[in-house]
From TrEMBL:
The chain crosses the membrane at residues 47-67, 79-97, 103-121, 133-154, 166-184, 245-272, 284-305, 312-331, 337-358, 370-393, 399-421. Gene3D superfamilies: MFS general substrate transporter like domains. Keywords: Membrane, Transmembrane, Transmembrane helix. Coiled coil: none annotated. GO terms for molecular function: transmembrane transporter activity. Its main location: membrane. Residues 195-227 are annotated as: Disordered. It comes from the Bacteria. It is found in: Cell membrane. This is MFS transporter. It is a multi-pass membrane protein. GO terms for cellular component: plasma membrane. Residues 9-426 form the Major facilitator superfamily (MFS) profile domain.
Length: 438
């Protein structure tokens, strides 16, 4: 069936989603490159840096649980404004702090906003673009990938030219810009009624044909905004813990996040110790690892939504990552390190894959909010453990072999979860098959 025109009444939603996605990653990636410059103005202790390093997954887990409560009271769009406002204020405050405690507090505010935004984006895509999930998820994940690369590249040159305070605060402009489309949409929705979608329009996504009608009924949008989301049910959230598909999605997401946080925390040190490369080379190889996420963000949503390639993509990401880790263990030769790092970087496929699945494994935006909260809260809770665990194991063993084996074990243990997540059913289908009416 024909999809609705992309820009008809949804231009603001496209801009809002893309700017929100960009703000989530740039907020996280803009601090570490200028920490040394900050330390030249006031002391930033290793303890504070350690807390800042563990804040992202902890805040993401906590606010992943709180966001549905806010959404139930305020609605998706208002909570999105709240999340972006928190990010913007936190980023601006980071540019004016005068001590490490204030820096920590401003950063916590940033990550609180990011934690809410992480939960909100998949349901926003589901709500405004049920007929073009693949395309919008591609724009969304590509924006996140770009905002991972850009801040580290420009943060130091901008700090050298205009100071580290400006380098940190300037990213708040994107969050402020991201607020504007949602505020405009909220203002218009108060003064306009909402027509039904074009006759015959239906979502084009990876799902069983039996789900098409239920998804189509949830796909209404207008020139001024969507129909208000009905209050999310605590009963539905509790049901997710009894659905294997929800746990499989959480495990898949946790694997993706764990690989990313462990790599950004420890991969340069691992490469320096096991292969004897210099820090500049190790930094380049880390960038190579991260670069895989860019083509992945372009291709994965389309391959999943149009070609039902969930399981093949999960296999490529997991097996490729496992081969890369084994290569680092068995043949840490400087001349071939780039091959192992590139293969390990294939785990980057799992991040956009997880986000797409959150959108298409729920029938309605309301369910997608709760599923996003469950998956990301559980996932980030598990992720918070592993960077610390890897460091403890390295300190106890004096080497990286045990740590790398743990990373490999995570990929092996969660493989069945990826196969379950690849089943073309929704959480509602799973519940109804096991327990009756949703």
């Amino acid at each position: 069936m024909a999809a609705n025109p992309l820009w008809r009444g949804r231009t603001l939603a496209v801009l809002g989603i893309v700017l929100c996605a960009f703000s989530l990653r740039s907020a996280v990636a803009s601090l570490s490159p200028v920490v040394d410059l900050i330390s030249a103005d006031f002391p930033v202790s290793p303890a504070v840096l350690g807390v800042i390093g563990t804040l992202p997954p902890v805040c993401f887990a906590i606010f992943g649980l709180l966001t549905p409560l806010l959404e139930r009271r305020l609605g998706l769009e208002r909570v999105t404004v709240l999340a972006l406002s928190a990010i913007a204020v936190g980023l601006l405050l980071r540019g004016v702090v005068s001590d490490s405690v204030a820096l920590l507090g401003a950063t916590a505010l940033v990550f609180a906003g990011v934690g809410m935004g992480n939960i909100l984006l998949p349901p926003l895509v589901k709500k405004f673009f049920p007929d073009r999930i693949g395309l919008i998820m591609t724009l969304y994940t590509t924006s996140m990938a770009l905002s991972t690369f850009v801040p580290p590249l420009v943060a130091v040159p901008v700090a050298d030219a205009a100071g580290w305070r400006f380098s940190l605060a300037m990213w708040g402009a994107f969050a402020i810009a991201g607020v504007i489309p949602w505020v405009l949409m909220l203002g218009r929705s108060k003064t306009a009624s909402m027509p039904d979608p074009a006759p015959g329009a239906a979502p084009v996504e990876e799902s069983d044909p039996s789900d098409a009608e239920s998804v189509e009924r949830s796909s209404e949008f207008t020139e001024t905004g969507p129909i208000a989301t009905s209050p999310a049910s605590r009963r539905i959230f509790a049901r997710l813990a009894r659905i294997p598909l929800a746990w499989a999605l959480a495990a898949t997401f946790a694997t993706s996040a764990t690989m990313a946080y462990v790599s950004f925390a420890w991969l340069p040190a691992i490469l320096i110790d096991i292969a004897g490369v210099d820090p500049a080379t190790a930094g380049f190889l880390l960038s190579l690892f991260a670069f895989v996420g860019l083509p992945a963000s372009l291709l994965v949503p389309i391959l999943v939504v149009r070609y039902q390639a969930t399981r093949p993509l999960f296999v490529v990401g997991s097996v490729g990552g496992l081969v890369g880790v084994l290569g680092l263990l068995l043949a840490p030769v400087p001349s071939v390190l780039w091959i192992w790092v590139l293969l390990f970087g294939l785990v980057g496929l799992l991040f956009p894959l997880s986000l797409v699945l959150i959108s298409i494994r729920a029938r309605t935006p309301e369910s997608a909010v709760l599923l996003s909260s469950f998956v990301q809260s559980v996932g980030y809770t598990g992720t918070a453990v592993f960077p610390v665990l890897i460091g403890i194991l390295h300190g106890a063993s004096g080497g990286w072999t045990i740590s790398l084996l743990v990373v490999a074990a995570v990929l092996v243990v969660t493989f069945p979860a990826g196969m379950i997540a690849g089943r073309r059913v929704t959480i509602e289908d799973e519940w109804e098959r096991r327990h009756g009416k949703w």
